[in-house]
Design a protein that fits this description.
The structure holds 3 protein chains of 3 kinds. In chain A, a hairpin with a 2-residue loop joins strand 1 and strand 2. The radius of gyration of chain A is 19 Å and the shape is globular. The two termini of chain A are 27 Å apart. The longest helix of chain A is centred in the C-terminal third of the chain and has 36 residues. Chain A is mainly α. Chain B is α/β, with parallel strands linked by helices. Chain B has 12 helices and 13 strands. The longest helix of chain C has 35 residues. The chains are: A mainly alpha, B alpha/beta, C mainly alpha. Chains in contact: A-B, A-C, B-C. At the A-C interface, helix 2 and helix 8 of A face helix 2 and helix 8 of C.
């Protein structure tokens, strides 16, 4: 299995190199989004005398730059691809291999991230110089960041892969994905740090899994959480991962049954 | 610049036509891919190399050649899609690459593996669009469409979107759509590719009828011999961008084939096979019990035929030209 | 020429209209988009009374125009441009170039997405609500100014998309080149004045988001300066001419002309 994955990884890397211009364009859009929110909140903080809800302008800079990095390292795009895999025979081919198709997507995802990290690092450094974020990260925070980030990625990948399974039952993928991303926008900490949401929204954010995909690793990185909170957070991440994997397996099995019955 | 009177007599006239491409050269592997980021190696390739020919009005001419021979490139230069690198091409007296409106209104392009009809709307709607694009007067549009519908049996297909049609039905509709504006010159690039045998015959029959009725000049590229045999009295063979042959079909075999085929039916069936095998007479192409086909040199045909009749007990013997497909294949294979 | 455009639009619209289900799906998606924008605005104004000098209802008007312009782009500009890129990839552009009509015209009108007009309607509704809440009167010059800069914005956006598409003549592999506009356009949800100077220049002159959204919004809420109006018209003319010239150059390159 490791051999197949390694080959897939290398192939994906080569493809990414070929489509480097297209990849840069995607990256541009992805980098711009947190920057826009940064500028908006920066403007609000400016008007309100330098800070909003406990976040100063440099706090916002730190938050959204961290969000940019964490976002790029944890995101997936599989929910847009699956309907094409089903239609053009890619899925049928993958089902014939002695390997669960999810692993191909994992290799593909990691290859892309390895590719863009090369560009992401200098871009991040540049933006740090430009926006002057307030950084209060300690060594422990950095160490704790890695597992938090990894768990966030696993959780996000599982949930979004399960979401991709919707392609087995409907062609209205765009609508379904849009619902997911709108909810994600608010409750993962993408639009604003979760502390800034109105009370009822914050409660909701704590109950939903999205916070653990994005906001949590950001807060760890920025040194905003105590050791206890970090450990508790990781535990919750693991809990949600268990739920997500169960969901994923169920969606996959039903989906494949549907696929085999109906064909593509 | 208006076309000369003399040029009107020559629907397609090509003189020392050249098309040169600069192509990037690169090997496989990640290392080579990274190196190519820094330095690009290129090579000049002549896709079309000094080709000259002249087509007469109402002729149907077939362009034969393997993939990459330069047939499609020549066609594209004639239809105005590509600028020649050298030489000249004139179609209906115009220089095609100038893409003058009057020129484009009188030609049409059909590509076998690509559709110009809109995918999701009924064929009829695509036709309405084409009529609007070519500014075909309504009465003429109706009449032409009626004729084409009858000739190609399009009646059940008109209200269906192209994506619901089979490959053959799609091609019929494509061809009809290309002729709505009654062009004088037709450029057909592999029009029967991928079609089943019946549909190939239908399309060929239609093209022949269309040519007889309207006198349109047809330039047809193909790598199917059958297309050319059915439609074209004149064949132009292109390989590696050069013109190998320009003339009638029979002349093609004469010029390029050094062999003939002798088909033998043995009177005693299997039992009649000579003890030493067929090597003394010729090369065996086909063997089925008592029926054998031999390949022999043209000059030796008479002599070998004589020997066969003398040595063996033969029920039937025929001397044939080799299939043109084979001839062409050998021609292309022999040119490096 | 008008007959040709009318034929394409008529047939395109009629054919899409037969898929009724798409109406509801598109309505759902457009509403969701709008809801998201409004909720975002609500979170912001939970913490402040004004954003860079823009009052909540003024920002709402901006959002209305953002959706209106989105609708225009998604209905008339994006479908044709995406079709154009597909044509280059598949080699079917040859069919366009052998027609006795201006290729730029054909390429620009080939596809429309009729359901995206819902975005235009929603945007208009939001705009009207915002204006009504603002309670300011309208002068005729103000309305005229708005219409003019809105039209100029549309021309600028179309020309920009055409330039992006023309680049595909050289770089066929950049399948998502049109995404450049869409990524930058999301910045148009907020008034361009909030962005740092470097980004503001980028969003005005490189990717014309400012002229598409912020300027018409300024016009309708009564903030338009004469200089901005003049700039809008000037840029519209300049970019249209430049896009046309670049297009012709691209076609010549595609057909292998040495010049």
């Amino acid at each position: 299995m490791r051999n197949i994955l390694w080959v897939q990884f290398k192939t994906s890397l080569a493809v990414n190199l070929q489509y480097r211009a297209a990849n840069l364009i995607w990256l541009l859009g992805a980098v711009l989004e947190p920057l826009i929110y940064l500028v908006v909140w920066d403007t609000v903080a400016n008007v309100q005398g330098g800070s909003v809800g406990g976040y100063t302008r440099s706090d916002f800079a730190a938050y959204f730059l961290a969000q940019m990095v964490v976002g790029r390292l944890t995101f997936t795009w599989i929910m847009w691809e699956y309907e094409y895999f089903i239609r053009d025979g890619t899925l049928a081919r993958r089902l014939m291999r002695p390997l669960h198709p999810i692993w191909v997507d994992v290799a593909d995802n990691l290859a892309y991230k390895m590719f863009i990290v090369v560009v992401l690092i200098p871009v991040t450094i540049l933006l740090i110089f430009f926006f002057q974020p307030a950084l209060q990260t300690g060594w422990l925070d950095l160490v704790a960041f890695l597992p938090a980030l990894l768990l966030a990625f696993v959780l996000r990948f599982c949930v979004e892969w399960a979401l991709a399974m919707a392609a087995f039952w409907t062609t209205r993928i765009n609508a379904i994905n849009q619902v997911y991303f709108v909810v994600f926008l608010f409750f993962s900490g993408q639009l604003a740090p979760l502390d800034l949401l109105p009370g009822f929204a914050q409660t909701l954010a704590n109950v939903l899994p999205f916070r653990w995909m994005l906001a949590f690793p950001i807060e760890v990185l920025l040194g905003r959480l105590s050791a206890q909170e970090i450990v508790l957070g990781c535990a919750i991440q693991l809990g949600w991962i268990a739920v997500a994997v169960a969901m994923l397996l169920w969606a996959w099995r039903s989906g494949v049954k549907q696929f085999s019955a109906v064909g593509s | 610049m208006a076309p000369d009177e003399a040029d009107q007599e020559c629907p397609v006239c090509v003189e020392k036509l050249r098309k040169v491409y600069r192509v990037p050269v690169r090997e496989a592997g990640v290392g080579a891919a990274l190196r190519s980021l820094v330095k690009r190696n290129t090579k000049d390739i002549a896709a079309v190399n000094d080709i000259s020919f002249r087509i007469e009005p109402s002729e149907i001419v077939g362009f034969l050649g393997p993939n990459g021979a330069g047939k499609t490139t020549t066609l594209k230069m004639a239809s105005g899609l590509l600028h020649p690198s050298g030489g000249s091409v004139r179609v209906l007296g115009y220089e095609p690459w100038q893409r003058r409106r009057e020129f484009l209104s009188q030609i049409t392009l059909v590509m076998g593996n690509r559709n110009q009809l809109e995918w999701d709307i009924p064929c009829q709607d695509s036709y309405d669009l084409l009529a609007a694009v070519y500014r075909v007067p309504p009465a003429q549009y109706r009449q032409t469409l009626e004729e084409l519908t009858n000739l190609l049996e399009l009646e059940p297909l008109l209200s269906k979107p192209v994506r619901n049609l089979s490959l053959g039905e799609r091609m019929k509709c494509e061809v009809a759509g290309a002729l709505l504006h009654r062009p004088k010159v037709l450029f057909l690039d592999e029009p029967t590719i991928g079609l089943d045998v019946t549909m190939q015959r239908r399309i060929r029959a239609f093209l022949k009828t269309y040519n007889q009725r309207t006198g349109a000049t047809i330039l047809l590229t193909s790598h199917y011999m059958a297309d050319v045999e059915a439609l074209c009295k004149r064949v132009v063979v292109i390989h590696h961008g050069s013109l190998l042959y320009d003339g009638g079909l029979s002349g093609l075999v004469e010029q390029f084939s050094a062999y003939k085929t002798i088909a033998i039916d043995l009177a005693d069936g299997r039992a009649g096979i000579p003890a030493g095998g067929w090597g003394a007479y010729g090369e065996v192409i086909e063997e089925d019990g008592g029926t054998i086909k031999l390949r022999v040199r043209k000059q030796e045909t008479a002599a070998i035929t004589g020997r066969l009749l003398a040595d063996l007990s033969i029920a039937d013997l025929t001397v044939e030209d080799p299939p043109i497909d084979e001839v062409i294949e050998k021609v292309f294979a022999s040119q490096p | 020429m008008l007959h040709l455009i009318a034929t394409y639009f008529r047939l395109g619209a009629l054919n899409e209209l037969q898929y009724r289900a798409n109406f509801w799906i598109n309505l759902l998606q457009s509403s969701l988009s709008l809801l998201s924008a409004l909720a975002g605005m609500a979170v912001i104004f939970y913490h402040t009374d004004a954003l860079a000098g823009w009052l909540p209802m003024e920002l709402l008007a901006l959002i209305g125009i953002y959706f209106l312009m989105s609708g225009f782009i998604n209905t008339f500009v994006q479908p044709s441009m995406e079709r154009f890129l597909q044509d280059i990839r598949l080699g079917t552009l040859d069919f366009v170039l052998t027609k006795p009509r201006d290729a730029q015209l054909l390429v620009s009108i080939r596809r429309i997405s009729i359901w995206s007009l819902l975005d235009v309607l929603l945007g208009l509704a939001v705009l009207l609500i915002a204006l009504q809440r603002l309670g300011r009167g309208f002068t005729l010059p103000q309305i005229l100014g708005f219409v003019v800069v809105l039209a100029a914005g549309a021309v600028i956006v179309y020309s920009f998309w055409l330039i992006l598409g023309t680049i595909a003549f050289w770089f066929v592999k950049i399948e998502n080149i049109l995404v450049i506009f869409q990524s930058m356009y999301q910045a148009g949800r907020w008034p361009v004045s909030i962005y740092p100077p470097a980004l503001r220049v980028l969003l005005t002159f490189l990717v014309p988001v400012a002229f598409a959204v912020t300027v018409p919004a300024e016009a309708i809420i009564g903030r338009l300066e004469w200089t901005t109006l003049a700039a809008s018209l000037g840029v519209a003319l300049a970019i249209f001419v430049a896009a046309r010239a670049f297009w012709l150059y691209g076609v010549r390159h595609y057909s292998g002309a040495s010049a």
